[in-house]
Design goal:
This protein is an alpha+beta fold. The protein has three domains: 241 residues, Phosphatase 2c, domain 1, CATH 3.60.40; 34 residues; 75 residues, no CATH class. It has ten helices and 15 strands. Strands 2, 3, 4, 5, 6 and 9 form a six-stranded antiparallel beta sheet that branches. The protein has a five-stranded antiparallel beta sheet with strand order 1-11-10-7-8. Strands 14-13-12-15 form a four-stranded antiparallel beta sheet. Strand 7 and strand 8 form a beta hairpin. Helix 1 runs antiparallel to helix 2, helix 1 crosses helix 9 and helix 1 crosses helix 10. It starts with a strand and ends with a helix. About 5% of the residues have low confidence.
């Protein structure tokens, strides 16, 4: 049995006033969308793309063909929405997505994932010591790389690197790349907006992805590195780990008796071990406390249709004695949202800052207004 474990991090970066990225991170479906367009229209486009993708996935068998049909339909909706308002005219969004494919066959088959992309948001795979890009950018600089006119490193800093040749909402039709890939226990996928790849060299992304740490830690670390390197764009990272029945053996780098023990008596050994255990526990508590009080998430005030969308600070579930604290509640209520958006709030969408959470609520209002 294979399942997917994930971590998500998103940030406005150091320059942009708002976050026009959006994402999906559910049990079986993951996506990153990078919006574009003035008057906050990029936020509307990316929020529409991710919300509608999640809504259309309910009770569906997710395949490459499903991705093509769903994303093609979403493209038309965004395009029509842009045509209805001068402020949203020209809005668009990239999207890259991944979903576990569940076979209904009685014959046991190897697990697979379906993938899709439009634009220059990327999907990477770390597998058995190898890191590679799965998606192909639909961008001006990628065409230069393909033609051999510039290198991949030159493309990363090219002044026209942000020009995409495909995006949702720009035209009434769009071509969607989609494919199937076998998945194995230990695989790690990284979905990201170009705010990561424009700031962080591929080798550095690979080095972090290779670390045997929780996907949430990897996602947070990648976003933090992009910010340290400049953070000139919004940054969104979704890290997805494939976890199966096969139990991975611990790394063998610590085999052998510690040198210090060769020179200690039995009582001193116990003292050293006790101090070491106490130190590890102390560090663990500090890290746990810091993680439990970091970040913000959306939640409903209560279970009624009139309950407000609120922003809480900390972990969405109790960690030891650390509990989340309520920061504020908005005038947006549960009944204003379509079911897919309600599920996003129920799933506690997380944000690095309270400002990011407030901007996302504003984007939810925009999307809800379009459905009135």
């Amino acid at each position: 049995m294979m399942f997917l474990k994930h971590g998500v991090a998103t940030d406005t970066g150091n320059v942009r006033p708002q976050n026009e990225d959006a994402y999906v991170a559910s049990e079986y479906l993951f996506a990153v969308a990078d919006g574009m367009g003035g008057h906050n229209a990029g936020e509307v486009a990316s929020a529409l793309a991710t919300t509608l993708l999640l809504e259309r996935a309910v009770d569906q068998t997710l395949t490459p063909e499903w991705f093509v049909d769903a994303i093609t339909a979403i493209n038309r909706i965004i395009h029509e929405s842009a045509a209805e308002s001068t402020e949203r005219r020209g809005m668009g969004t990239t999207i890259c997505a991944l979903a576990m494919v569940h076979s209904h066959s009685e014959v046991t088959e190897s697990p697979q994932v379906a993938l899709a992309n439009v634009g220059d948001s990327r999907i990477y795979l770390w597998r058995a010591g190898t890191f590679r890009q799965l998606s192909v950018d639909h961008s001006y600089v990628q065409e230069l790389v393909t033609e051999g006119l510039i290198s991949e490193e030159e493309a990363r800093v090219h002044p026209r690197r942000n020009i995409v040749t495909r995006a949702l909402g720009i035209d009434d039709r769009v071509s969607v790349d989609s494919w199937l890939l076998p998945v194995f226990s230990g695989d790690r996928f990284v979905l990201c907006s170009d705010g990561l790849v424009d700031e962080v060299p591929t080798a550095d992304i690979a080095a972090l992805a290779a670390q045997q740490r929780e996907p949430q830690v990897i996602a947070d670390s990648l976003v933090a590195l992009a910010k340290r390197n400049g953070g000139r764009d919004n940054i969104t990272v979704v890290v997805v780990d494939a976890v199966g029945d096969v139990v991975e053996h611990a790394p063998q780098s610590f085999i052998g008796e510690p040198v210090v023990e060769k020179h200690l008596s039995g009582s001193k050994k116990k003292w050293v071990i006790g101090v070491g255990v106490a130190f590890v526990l102390l560090v663990s508590l500090v890290i746990t406390g810091r993680n439990a009080r970091s970040g913000y998430f959306l939640t409903f005030e209560n279970s009624s249709p009139s309950s407000s969308v609120c922003i809480d600070h900390g972990s969405s579930s109790r960690v030891l004695w650390f509990m989340p604290t309520r920061e504020l509640c908005s005038d947006l209520v549960r009944s204003d949202l379509i079911p897919a958006l309600q599920r996003q709030v129920d799933n506690h969408s997380r944000f690095t800052t309270i400002l990011d959470a407030q901007r996302y609520i504003a984007a939810l209002k925009e999307v809800s207004a379009l459905n009135d």
